[in-house]
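Deliverable D5.2: sample structural annotation.
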Amino acid sequence: MAAGRRSRAGTSAVMRNSHGALVIAFSVLLAACATDGAGPDSAEADTGFLGSAGASLTAGRPASRGASAALGGHGDRRRGYTDLATASLSRAAEAGPRASLGDDGRTVSLNFVDADVQEFVRIVFDEVLKESAIVDPGVSGKITVRTVQPVSKASAVELVRNVLQMNGASLTRSNGVYRIEKAAEGRRGKLGDAMRVFPLQHIDADQARSAIQSVAGQGAEIFSNKGGRFLVVSGAPADLNAVEQVLASLDVDQMAGMSFALVPLQDGGAQAVAGELTQMFGQSGALKAVPIQRMNALLLIGRTPAAVERAKAWIRRLDQAGQDERKVFVYAVQNRRAQEIAKVLNGMLGASSARSGGSQEPASRTAVAPTVKTTSASTDGGFVNPRVDQVFADVSEGDAEGSSAAAAGAASGGRSPLSRGEVAVSADLSTNSLVVIARPDDYRLVEAAIRRLDVQPAQVIIEATIFEVQLNDTLRHGVRWFFEQGNHGAILTDANNGSLGPTYPGFNYIFQVPKARIVLNALESMTRLEVISSPALTVLDNQTATLKVGDQVPIATRSAQSTTNPDAPIVNDIELKDTGVILSVTPRVNAGGLVQLDISQEVSDVVETTTSSINSPTIRQRSVNSSVAVQSGTEIILGGLISRRSETGRSGLPLLKDIPVLGEAFTSNATRGQARNELLIIIRPVVMSNQTDVLAVTQEIKARMQGLPAPARGNVVKAKY
């Protein structure tokens, strides 16, 4: 089953849409078991029903109604489900208390939505369990957890342990007191993750966990304790909806004492393998195999665990056909653009083909596939998007071109792996999916690479403050000299030390929070600081964020006049030039939290032209281009750009100096002095890799906007008991 999951992990979106077919097929199977026992034609009969009803399922139609009727009245209301098609709890439940005790005082119901960890622990232990608990202030995060049915107090404690584990904390008990501490390495939920608790009445938790692994999706996590009576599932809401609907059909009284498993297939077709299993086990009734064609999986139900394991062993043998036959696979990309991954894979395939001596096709042939409206049947056992069939119409040509490489590989003892003529990769833009034509063993290698590439990109919020410092007598040599002579603990770096690399003359400072603010307060006490701009940008990893605050100024780039007609007008070519504050930042985040920033900063204004006769303004600008590597949350200062601005004055005798022409004789122009300013830029990148980080940064920014002191990130007020 694990191998099957690896082969179909990329098709998680397809499997989410097919859980309705699994519910209907299973319901019909149970109805047959209740009335007929074990018929030899059960697999074929269920398959026929699945083929007609499963194809008509839609995401908005409750698939559980038909299932409830087939199960003999075991509907969703008895189990606490309100709408299995959407897996949504009733509005009354959402508006009810967060945690409550049952009437008997032995069961607990939980209903938390985006609750703070500290508040969650306080309510559960103080108000419900009546237990003493000590909470580490460093434990933080948001929790969404709902129990479909009341659970026992012991199960509630185990549930809290799993919830805290997913938020990077641990739960221990010593001398009758629970301790919640920050774990050394805790798992953090992804953006949009939620958690639900599914109590089990008739089926084993371990078997249920194995069965729903394929339905839950690639990013879901499932927790179960041995011999326990509930499952804790965390993942995307769509995955939780699929799990809830499948468990509602599996956990019924007809399944008491039965063993079951959901086995995805790698290469063979579900219908064909189910038919062969039916012939092997005959009419003994020891095993029933239901093909789920939309998932290309088999649902096995047996009277004993040995029968199910024996069927799994036969499936592993039967699911080996067609290893030398190329098939079509579709991988639903979750976090990146499909064309980006396709470009990387095609480059890898081209390099592999070159190393193996085979012919290499142009990389552009299968880089990006447009949407093609065609319909055709798929190879049995493969997942085909019909829109991309025409994209691979030239595959036979690629086979012919790669035949010489295949012959060379055969002569050397085997074919070359992942050669261009045998593996084709394309991106379907409309569904953001990758379409791969390959042999099953080759596809497993390609899929492993896709999984490593298809990761959720981090987000980086960049807080920047751009201001000018007026240089007076104390700062006459610049801010750098002030820092060096004043022993303020700043780290000064030049361009050649490897830490910071400015490409424009200047210097850089690195400060740890909050030293930068302290130094700025010191500067403000001795000179004038003028804030030019203070933006906050959020950008994805390896993407460029640009901020422009200013005007577009028309600039004359060329003038022309007719040489044959002296009275012809002068024609000017005008170009609009951006002026003001222009900031461009490209962050690159590594696994250790180090952020490399490519910074381009420009501050420009318009002055009157004094060096040219063209009637066009002059753009006076100051710019900094720098590459900086700092840890998340560290403030850096870029500076060293000093400008001089002369101040001139006109004086003369009153009244006489204003006489046209003659007034110049009674007027004198004098330079009063030069104003010197230094441009400084403070940049603070903060990496947001999960929902907890996003909420913490959002709260911090809101507090600043409201004029309140920002709470320390990661620290929450300690709960008292």
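Annotation notes: The mean pLDDT is 67. The two ends are 47 Å apart (CA to CA).
The annotation will be released with the project's public dataset once the embargo ends.
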